[in-house]
């Protein structure tokens, strides 16, 4: 027990470096299944933790597995394992298994601020034995649902600790880290008609999801026309009084928020000379509308 405790800091450093490298390769806040794995050694114990998707979206289910191995001839009997996770991840009932054998865990959801959120499983002294043999490398798997209260775009730590016949191992933030992806926004400029020098035209941008919040900055080329908040209906508006006739590029840049990505849209608009009542470029004055980014 004492020897394992004294090397815990070294093991943690190695695992944290590996987790950071994996996240750098995968990118943060990216939707899609991006499996991530961390491994570390503590004396003759070797551990492998894998998350099925390190960049999940809100509402998705992820599975975290922990594999136990021995690298010498001494065996270890597992007595208890605690899987530690952010409070915004909710345990999926019935998902806890060891080598596909269903378990009956104790679940602490973190609602008590004095207790960490975790899933704890106890074993009989001879239920699960770890040996330096493939048939004795048990794997604990637990699934969680990603909650809307998860901080998005930030790495959230996971880890575990356990008791066994060789002592205690505490690896509370070994990883892999989970980075909840932001929702993807789309910004669209409404058709711009009747633009002319000396005339005020209303620019309107529509942002989805509609309740995203944030702001839209409207630009005439490189010049900022104005910045407006996105309303509850997803729209933002600004007044534009063009100073130059001819073809202008109007841009709508959506800022994004803590939970929604930024996006942008632009349109080519024909501006008529002063006093002509507005130009038309032959396409309803909306020259070209480019895809959102």
From TrEMBL:
Keyword Glycosyltransferase attributed: no
Signal peptide: 1-33
One GO term (biological process): carbohydrate metabolic process
Segments forming a coiled coil: none
Gly residues biased stretches: 275-285
Gene3D superfamilies: Immunoglobulins (2.60.40.10)
Protein name as annotated: Ig-like domain (Group 3)
Ranges of residues in domain Bacterial Ig-like: 193-271
The entry's keywords: Signal
Highest taxon listed in the record's lineage: Bacteria
NCBIfam families: B_ant_repeat
């Amino acid at each position: 027990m004492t020897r394992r405790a004294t090397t815990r800091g070294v093991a943690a450093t190695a695992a944290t470096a590996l987790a950071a490298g994996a996240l750098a390769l995968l990118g943060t806040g990216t939707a899609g299944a991006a499996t991530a794995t961390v491994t570390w050694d503590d004396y003759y114990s070797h551990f492998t933790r894998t998350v099925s998707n390190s960049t999940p979206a809100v509402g998705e289910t992820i599975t975290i597995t922990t594999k136990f191995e021995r690298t010498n001839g001494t065996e270890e009997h597992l007595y208890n394992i605690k899987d530690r996770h952010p409070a915004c991840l909710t345990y999926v009932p019935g998902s806890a298994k060891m080598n596909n054998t269903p378990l009956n865990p104790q679940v602490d959801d973190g609602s008590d601020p004095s207790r960490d959120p975790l899933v704890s499983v106890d074993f009989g002294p001879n239920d699960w034995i770890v040996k330096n043999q493939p048939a004795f490398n048990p794997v604990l798997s637990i699934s969680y649902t990603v909650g809307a209260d998860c901080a998005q775009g930030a790495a959230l730590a996971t880890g575990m600790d356990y008791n066994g016949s060789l002592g205690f191992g505490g690896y509370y933030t070994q990883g892999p880290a989970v980075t909840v992806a932001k929702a993807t926004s789309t910004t669209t400029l409404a058709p711009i008609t009747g633009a002319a020098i000396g005339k005020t035209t209303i620019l309107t941008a529509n942002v989805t999801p509609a309740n995203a919040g944030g702001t839209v900055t409207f630009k005439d080329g490189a010049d900022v026309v104005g910045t407006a908040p996105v309303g509850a209906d997803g729209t933002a508006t600004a007044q534009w009084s063009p100073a130059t006739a001819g073809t202008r590029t109007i841009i709508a840049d959506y800022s994004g928020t803590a939970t929604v990505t930024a996006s942008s849209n632009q349109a080519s608009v024909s501006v008529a000379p002063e006093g002509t009542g507005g130009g038309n470029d032959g396409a309803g004055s909306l020259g070209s509308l480019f895809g959102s980014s």
